[in-house]
Amino acid sequence: MVGSEIEIEQEHLTGLYARVDALRDEAAARLATARRAGADRDAVAVWEAEITRLDAAADGLCFGRMDLRDGRRTHIGRLGLFRDGDDEPLLVDWRAPAAQAFYTATAAAPQGVRRRRRITTRGRTVTALDDELLDQDDAETDGSLVGEAAMMAAVTAERTGRMRDVVATLQAEQDRIIRNEHRGALVVQGGPGTGKTAVALHRVAYLLYRHQHLRTRGVLVVGPSRIFLDYIGQVLPGLGEHSVVTATIADLRPGVEVSRVDPPGTAALKGSAVMADRLAAAVRARIRVPDEPVEVEFERQVLRLDPDTWRRAVRKAGRTGLPHNQARLVCHREVVEVLAQRLVEDMEAVVLTDTGEAIDGGSADGKLGEADLRALAAAGVVIGQDDAGGGGDMLDATDEAALRDALLADTGVQTALDRLWPPLTPEGVVADLLGEPGRDWSAADVPLLDEAAALVDGDHRHADGRATFGHVVVDEAQELSGMAWRMLMRRCPTRSMTIVGDLAQTGDPAGASSWEDVLRPHVGDRLRLVQLTVNYRTPAEIMAATADLLAAHHPGARPPRSVRSTGEPPSRVRTTAAELPDVVAELAGTLTGGRLAVIAPPTHLGCLAAALSLTTPPDTPPDLTNPVVLLTPGQAKGLEFDSVLIADPATILTSAPLGHNDLYVAMTRATRRLVVVHPGPPPAELTAVHELPR
Question: What is the pLDDT of residues 515-553, one digit of tens each?
Fold first, then answer.
């Protein structure tokens, strides 16, 4: 029976691939025609994108089938396919409303589904089927997984060093969040292994499918590190989405090289949202309002700028709401307008007294003085001898405009005005405020530089040159500081965001302890919080080993429920500080099968790399496809491995203010085995973990 069913599905799959091949051939022909005809770039890009979309869907094209109670059958896959002239789909896109029941139907609420079938393929060949009957009259929901066999096969498979999409095994809890149509900031809080990243990325694919305008407005995915972004880099292309921009916070300020690390206290201070007010005050403080008149020299004439004129110009510039450097130009033009008008008035008021003496700077014969003529010459205004007498309208509007331009361009005038309202750079503002050299920047400085750029230049440009995005995804969002959130909000004026994280895993000293506190000031009532409660990755034995750690530092926190057990509890090995590298290397050799992560404090990386014979330079991001990788807890965020070996948990706990969260992250990266090596007695939080004799 199974064999005949596989043959049926194979026949259907073969037909689907034939349709994809035909569509791809057509797209390739259209592309070639467009290129030969010299079509514009947009026309060519349409067919290039279509070929890319079809190629992306070729792996795992069809992965499911629903047999409905009304007798219809619906196949589910990575894209929608139709026969020419036929409205009935050959394949339904997993994002379409008609596919939702495939992920959410249960025996208690079958939603018209009689049977759900998971189809496993390799290349273009059907290799296995997994059927669930949902129409049993006495069936009751027990909270079990939808498509349990397929899900278990996915989570127990060896890691590859790259995240895979889970479109074929999405669970009902995940699917509801993916299809959530909230238009504001959707926060997905979830513990380790709940699939937060997968949900965020699949929601991007869903939103791009449902809301085509996002393709032109753009989507940005922000991750905690380049290691993490490389790890997830294949997911969206595998779902047919190639236009999404990925970046770290530092990437959003191109040209800023992060070359130093701040102490935790300094990082926390720099990350505080109050720094926005301090930066704004620092910029305002650079504008001087003198109490006495200021002398401005122009073509050897001394013009007097009185404080009231300057104050009026400053107020007018401030009311524009422009950034500092643009408002500065408004202010300077206002002042130059006054100075120019005074020059014109002085020139045109040259008259003689009854005794023949010139008034207001004219010469003895009642004509313009040498200084006046120099000023006009600088403006390109030529005055003939017959026109040089005073008492009339010698200058027309064009001449007056030229005089204003000459004043603005004059070095002496500009120098005087710049002393009162100087041009600023973001780097200079931040360096002056911090009292630090403006050459070596830390990660915490990047949002400060971005804030200063917004104040000074209104500059929000980031990696691909786009100023804003239609939707922003933030992964490991608990790590972002208050200033980093301000930086992101400038790039998402619509406040359409998918934000995923776990407050129990916050490691950055400036990171979040409350979603409400960090987001409500920016999004108001457009904030919505949803929860992921099921742990698909971390075995129950490992989650149980974290119980004392959570109880000590997050009392009342409810860890996610693990859906599987391996029968292999975590273990710990006691050693000495001197023997730690050798013991770690010895144990690493026993943890074979799949990929192993050795997670250690930054201070141990050098000696452990030598013991493990790792040749990657210390400043090079580790290659996650290697069998063994060495990481800090911060680098391990969001990643998963078959086995994890933690070196020196006590130092992890004490080397940072939120070290307990770092240890929690390290302990929950494994899908199979966890071993802890501790010099001396174990931390109190780990005493319940089984100790192995040596």
Answer: 999 999 999 999 999 999 999 999 999 999 999 999 999
Q: Cβ(470)–Cβ(219) under 8 Å?
A: yes
Taking CB atoms within 8 Å and a gap of at least 24, the contacts of 601-607 are: 601/632, 601/633, 601/647, 601/648, 601/651, 601/652, 601/655, 602/632, 602/655, 603/651, 603/655, 604/580, 604/647, 604/648, 604/651, 605/630, 605/632, 607/580, 607/581
380 band by pLDDT with thresholds 50, 70 and 90: low
Alpha-carbon distance 233 to 21, whole Å?
26
- What sign does the dihedral 255-261-264-266 (CA atoms) show? negative
Query: φ, ψ for residue 350 (rounded to 5)?
Result: -75, 115
Q: What is the pTM of this model?
A: 0.88
Of the candidates 279, 77, 90, 63, the one whose C-alpha atom is nearest the C-alpha of residue 150 is 63
Q: What distance separates the 2 farthest-apart alpha carbons in the chain?
A: 126
Q: Which residues pair with 677 in a beta bridge?
A: 573, 647
Report which of 642, 605, 603 is spatially closest to residue 621, judged by C-alpha positions: 605
Q: How far apart are CA 682 and CA 651, in angstroms?
A: 11
Q: What is the DSSP letter of 341?
A: H
Residues 6 or more apart from 519 whose CB is under 8 A from it?
185, 187, 485, 499, 527
Q: What is the pLDDT of residues 246-287, one digit of tens each?
A: 999 999 999 899 999 999 999 999 999 999 999 999 999 999
Please give the mean pLDDT across all residues of the chain. Answer: 89
